[in-house]
Backbone:
């Protein structure tokens, strides 16, 4: 693994004069080729994209320029995402797949797999079975709270499920694509417990808002807002959701602020993402649910 303390890339040296690279973050950029050069003089013959986001593959053009015959492997949906916003710094994949793809170059094998909606369309798991390494970018952040809004994941249910999917793999080393170290199976379990706590607390908080009394009761909270903002439904929702998110962030923070780094930075943002997912994906609407 190569890291600058903020982003991470992976590479494998084969015994047949070639190198396989996974991702090429722009903050690492040309240093990735330099670091590979400190290990071997073999060229990079294959590169895999974990997904399309520029912050993880914007230096792919630099890697590709080092070998005009390079093969770039990605999920078909990643290729579609890149085609929507063509970028010479992120060359189009030369090989795509739908469900799984095994890349074997002599003594090195990477198993690539798509397990459904998660961070973005085409987002894949990258497994090195021989080395027992799993790379999954933008889901688990070993030792840290997830990035803002649960790492900006497009499917929070898929994001939660990903923790179980990760633990189904045989690995001892986890590469999450961010920050300053690799992870372990226990790091995955710790974040899984945090995310489940966030979900449970969000469900609880929305339930409190449906009660007749209490700090989150809309019966007490919203009438003054409606009076001050006649006919403005967005004002009502802003106050209501703001109160629920604040409650969730503070409650979860009492259990996690001293356990995961950065909880003081993204605790509120992650609570907001989970509250919205609980409402819209799981249908827990509290006082705004179906009237009986």
Residues:
């Amino acid at each position: 693994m190569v890291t600058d303390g903020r982003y991470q890339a992976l590479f494998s040296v084969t015994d047949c004069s070639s190198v396989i690279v996974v991702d090429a973050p722009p903050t690492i950029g040309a240093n990735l080729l330099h670091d590979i050069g400190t290990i071997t003089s073999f060229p990079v013959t294959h590169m895999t994209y974990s997904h399309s986001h520029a912050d993880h593959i914007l230096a792919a053009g630099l890697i590709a320029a080092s070998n005009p015959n390079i093969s770039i492997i990605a999920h078909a949906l990643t290729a579609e995402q890149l085609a929507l916003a063509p970028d010479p710094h992120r060359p189009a994949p030369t090989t795509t797949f739908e469900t799984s793809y095994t890349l074997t170059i002599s003594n090195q094998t990477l198993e690539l797999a798509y397990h459904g909606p998660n961070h973005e369309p085409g987002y894949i798991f990258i497994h090195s079975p021989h080395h027992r390494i799993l790379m999954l970018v933008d889901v688990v952040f070993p030792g840290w709270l997830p990035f803002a809004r649960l790492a900006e994941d497009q499917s929070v249910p898929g994001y939660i499920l990903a923790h179980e999917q990760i633990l189904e793999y045989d690995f001892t080393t986890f590469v999450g694509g961010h920050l300053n170290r690799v992870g372990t199976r226990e790091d995955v379990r710790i974040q899984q417990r945090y995310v489940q706590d966030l979900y449970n607390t969000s469900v609880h908080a929305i339930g409190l808002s449906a009660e007749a009394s209490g700090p989150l009761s809309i019966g007490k909270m919203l009438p003054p807002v409606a009076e001050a903002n006649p006919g403005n439904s967005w004002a009502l929702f802003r106050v209501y959701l703001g109160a629920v998110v604040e409650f969730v962030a503070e409650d979860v923070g009492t259990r996690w602020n001293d356990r995961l780094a950065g909880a003081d930075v993204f605790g509120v943002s992650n609570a907001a993402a989970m509250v919205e997912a609980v409402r819209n994906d799981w249908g827990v609407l509290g006082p705004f649910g179906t009237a009986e």
User: Anything to note?
Assistant: The first strand starts at residue 2 and ends at 3.
